[in-house]
Write a structure and sequence with these properties.
Blueprint (H helix, E strand, L loop, with lengths): L4 H10 L4 H16 L6 H5 L1
Helix pairs in contact: 1-2
């Protein structure tokens, strides 16, 4: 899965976030997704 921090940032800015806030949210979301084990093969195999 590919997650674009640029897309997340721009969408957040369009909704009223400052540039700094938008970048911070994007970085945190990517970090959460990349470091979680949800959705990996082992998760679905039980």
């Amino acid at each position: 899965m590919s997650i674009s921090t640029l897309v997340i940032s721009r969408r957040s800015e369009a909704k009223g976030f400052t540039e700094t806030q938008a970048e911070g949210v994007a970085e945190e979301l990517v970090d959460i997704v990349e470091n979680s084990d949800l959705g990996n093969k082992g998760f679905f195999e039980g």
